[in-house]
Specification:
Number of domains: 2
Structural class: mainly alpha
Distance between the termini: 132 Å
Largest sheet: none
Shape: globular
Radius of gyration: 34 Å
Number of helices: 12
Length: 298
């Protein structure tokens, strides 16, 4: 009996030992198994490819995301301060309310464009890029509409010789068509910046700066009306024109450590074009002849 128990215990011990040796061999094989070279290279490549995206995602600051929202709100505020007084107190208007049909169309399209712009930059700040892209077509259509209605509004004003609000041309006086049509120069950089932004829509750093430059080109009219309400600002006209450039340059410097080439060259060219037009081109006989042809057909 004792011999039988001893034999049973010995057999169980031997079986346990064999299982332990087999497990040890399996672990040794796994530990020293050689991964194929192509698998290692693929793994390393995937890791390196994912590093820039991770870095880019973590390096973006909240202040940078909301910068464009803040600038857009400031432009909307500028428009309210500039155009609001003649609407709230129409007693000083050259032509009483309501607005003409073309002026009303211009107001509606301008407001819609700014609100869509605000929605677009807010969507990006909130991380809703997919919705932002879907709304892009609305922004493009409004940009085209803004160019068209602004041009016809200026032509209608040039035929009258004065603006409806009385902010730009004193009541009882008129200006020649060439002078009144001069602000149309802003439509050129606006159209160029929007078209370039659409073309570069898959390059966010370029796209957002081009659209910001496009919005800045629309601030000429509200600034002019602002000076009409407060003539003291006219002495600072040149410096006011530099504000958009300074804002873009400072933002790029603080957020990127350098001024982005689009901000630099786009801002400089836009500023140079506006000054070249108002200082040189708008005073030429060729421009005035063109304006007379547009307005009077002769």
């Amino acid at each position: 009996m004792r011999s039988r128990n001893f034999d049973t215990s010995l057999a169980a011990l031997q079986e346990s030992t064999n299982e332990d040796q087999s497990a040890l061999q399996d672990v040794s094989k796994d530990a020293f198994a050689v991964t194929p070279l192509k698998d290692v290279m693929h793994s390393n490549t995937m890791t390196r490819a994912s590093e820039p995206a991770t870095t880019a995602g973590t390096s973006r600051r909240p202040s940078d995301r909301w910068f464009y929202v803040g600038v857009t709100l400031s432009v909307i505020l500028l428009n309210l301060v500039s155009f609001g007084p003649s609407i709230i107190d129409p007693s000083a208007r050259t032509v009483p309310l309501p607005l003409t049909s073309i002026d009303l169309a211009h107001v509606l399209v301008s407001v819609a464009w700014l609100l869509v712009f605000l929605a677009q930059v807010t969507l990006i700040a909130a991380g809703r890029a997919a919705v932002h892209r879907r709304m892009g077509i609305v922004g493009v259509l409004l940009s085209v509409a803004l160019i068209v209605v602004t041009w016809f509004m200026l032509v209608e004003g040039a035929r009258r010789g004065f603006d409806l609000s009385g902010d730009l041309v004193p009541r009882g006086t008129t200006v020649d068509p060439g002078t009144f049509l001069a602000p149309a120069e802003a439509l050129v950089p606006f159209g160029v910046f929007v078209a370039a932004a659409v073309w570069c829509r898959r390059r966010p750093a370029v796209h957002k700066r081009l659209m910001m430059l496009a919005m800045w080109t629309t601030t000429g009219a509200p600034v002019a009306h602002l000076m009409g309400h407060w003539p003291a600002f006219r002495a600072l006209a040149f410096l006011i024109g530099l504000v958009p450039l300074a804002v873009l340059f400072i933002h790029d410097r603080l957020s990127q450590g350098r001024i982005h080439s689009v901000s630099l060259w786009g801002g400089v060219v836009s500023f140079a074009w506006a000054n070249l037009f108002f200082i040189v081109i708008a005073h030429t006989s060729a421009w005035h002849a063109f304006a007379d042809w547009i307005v009077r057909g002769r």
